[in-house]
Amino acid sequence: MNKPVHIGLAGADAALILQLTRCTPGLRLVAVADPQLEAVIVALRQAAIVAPRLVTNAAQLDAAAARGHVAVLEDVTSLGQAATIDIVVDATGSVLLGAEIALAAFAHTKALLVLYPALMVSLGPVLHGRAQQAATPLVFAHGSPALALIEVYRFVSDLGLRPRLAGICGAADLPLLDLVLAANWLDLALLPTPLDVAPGQALTSMALPEQLREQAQLAYVRAAPPAVFVFAEAAFPQQAALLEQAGLGKGPLFCFTQAAGFGFLAIARAIQSVKYATQPQLLPRYTVAGRTHKPLPQGHSISAGDCEPWLLALAESSVAPLPYALAMGCRLRYNIGPGEIVRWGDITPPTSAAARLYAEQIALLHRDERV
Q: What is the pTM of this model?
């Protein structure tokens, strides 16, 4: 019998724990780590996992796993350090914790599976470089809108078609992180405003706008249910005829769609395959920065009410912006007015692993920082 894949989970989520333990053959959950221990205990109880073992370090984790217990601990970096664990799954949703988890995993050549886009948007290029240096996979989870779109886009490209317009559908607010991740990964230009035309309506029979021939673009469509789509053009008439025979219409644009938002339900596919190891653009087009709501004085510690997530084309910024996910708690070195983008040089650099990685990423991307 094949040895099960041992999973160390960072983040307390009962639905994910259920998916890992009951619905995904070949996996064994050996540890759950989260700074909020009570949340872990509650999540395990909801997933009907009884008698977990409270531990404090990697050695105790390994001992508990050897006895068949699920280990529970506060220190998320112990997951990467534990010899028992094969894959570290990061479901914390925190860039600050995620940076520490990633560094510990790479230091011990553990595969890392990330379940939220904020980490990849903020630190994707530098984490990709660290994973390559460690010769270990860095995998972004299936089931997210960004990765669902990347899959469809690659499928369409593999057919020999020419993608012209890609998009994410949803009824919620603009999913900035997913859009930025997909745009950077696929090197697409982002349309500035959401569209109101659902996939398959009208666009397939429209004359192809000239700007789409020059540069494939990415859009957000306000529509339900959640889905992703790619409009593509045939490379030659015979190919268009085959697509018409397959029921995709007459063109000139052919629409390919896929449901999105599976989230944790798709985790097995991510674990079983490493071919989606992340390859973010070394020169990303966009980021999600922080834009101030009001004047902020020198020495102020940034909080959630001080700024909002703001889509920023990096070509528009002469200095490195501070990713929104890293802004909370940072102390300002200068006064900042309302409506301004917070820059890396505006803050006293924190000592967190995430901040150190971002400073490394600035150097990696050859961005001149004005302080």
A: 0.84
